[in-house]
Amino acid sequence: MWKFECYKDKAWEFRFRLKAWNGQIILASEWYTTKSACDNGIASIKKNCSDMARYEKKTTDSGKFRFNLKASNGQVIGTSQSYKSESGRNNWIKSVCDNAPEASVIEVD
Fold it and tell me: For residue range 64-106, what is the model confidence (pLDDT) as tens digits?
């Protein structure tokens, strides 16, 4: 089961992470000052994740592969973990497309 976890970090800022069925964190957000803004970020992920044009594929300096999911205004709304291969990154992009729209949202400590 895929899920978004909304939580407060050590600085008491709101963040979310998208976890896959296996518990792996696939996307993480920037910080938000309010819970409402964090909820809007999750809604934006669900809205934009099916549009492949919203994904920015990146290669790190260490040769790993990542992606950002962007809103229609170009703002990054989620950043992936690093993957060892380009195909691994691309497979997780497809999984986000398929699963994020129906992912549950929970609050965690």
Answer: 999 999 999 999 999 999 999 999 999 999 999 999 999 999 9
CB atoms within 10 A of CB 25: 12
Domains in the chain (CATH in brackets) are 3-107 (2.30.29.80)
Q: Which residue has the tokens 């309010």?
A: 34
CA–CA distance from 46 to each of 18, 20, 70, 79 (Å)?
11, 14, 11, 14
* pLDDT tens by residue, 7-37: 998 888 999 999 999 999 999 999 999 999 9
Residue 18, exposed/middle/buried by CB under 10 A (0-12, 13-18, 19+)?
Answer: buried
